[in-house]
Amino acid sequence: MYKVALNFEDGVTRFIQTLPGEKVADAAYRSGLNIPMDCRDGACGTCKCHCESGSYEMEGYIDDALSDQEAEQRYVLTCCMVPESDCVVTVPASSEVCVRAQQADVHGKLTAIERLSESTLSFTIAGDQVRALQFLPGQYVNVQVPGSDQTRAYSFSSMVNEADESVSFLIRVVPGGLMSGYMAERAAVGDALTLRGPFGSFYLRDIQRPLLMLAGGTGLAPFLAMLEKIRATGSDYPVHLIYGVTNDFDLVALDKLEAFAGEIDNFSFTACVASAESNWPQKGYVTHHIDASHLNDGEVDIYLCGPPPMVEAVNQHMQQQGIEPAHFYYEKFSASH
Fold first, then answer.
1. Is the domain defined by 104-199 classed in CATH 3.40.50.10300?
2. Is the dihedral of CA 327, 168, 96, 14 positive or negative?
3. Which residues on adjacent β-strands are paired with residue 301?
4. What is the pLDDT of residues 283-327, one digit of tens each?
5. Distance CA 191, CA 270 (A)
6. CB 269 within 8 A of CB 226
7. Which fold has domain 2-98?
């Protein structure tokens, strides 16, 4: 048996004891701590932490969840990590998030479906239980696909609207996709939907320095919720969002971003399109639009939500610029079928 110190980002340390062959996430759960996670089998990367000291074995995960470079830097997936000595593990979440009650099912009704573009739609769920949802801007839930036992993970694209007890989501329309097929072809207002969560360590922290937000496609969703929060609380520091998509028709919610820019004193944004056939003024990838002023010589917190290649491209860009941000929070996602 080995002792593992879990150091949370709010300065709290909790100690857990692992049984022979037991994974850190399972030992933490047994001790009443819920390290943010979803899949429990090395596929989602949600439970990624950093092992500061100690030896361990880790097998059975996929590259999208943890890259070779991350593994060399002693990043670990706690759902796969088996200690071989006493260890110290840094958890990129507050202790408050990790000692909350276990996630429960939340039942609501579909109140709106809107096709925003050829590739994107939004949907809204409302109800008494939805009103009671407690989540941090940037987190996600698993939504059960009606008529099946399968779920799909979606970040909240809004905070709870207390006026109508609702929350909203953005979803990419995937050919043959289980959830997007339901939403695009069969869903009707009034349908019952079940959510489970919230999950994830990707959420807005207290703003203590300039923020750079990087969104890829429907990775815009968590930033819309974050900006709602910032609109309500304000920010003493500049907040800049760079929103990148593949094609012109993938651009959505620009009206919301314009509204945020008018309502939040320190907020600005850039939208860019990668396609060479684009008619949009700002072309290229997100990394092409990161200015030195956005990086503030490293005194910046970066939040990134996008597909794995985007995460790797931003990491490489930071290395090439010789910039190490104060904090780099990211969430990788891929379109689900």
1. no
2. negative
3. 211, 327
4. 999 999 999 999 999 999 999 999 888 988 998 899 898 999 999
5. 36
6. no
7. Ubiquitin-like (UB roll) (3.10.20)
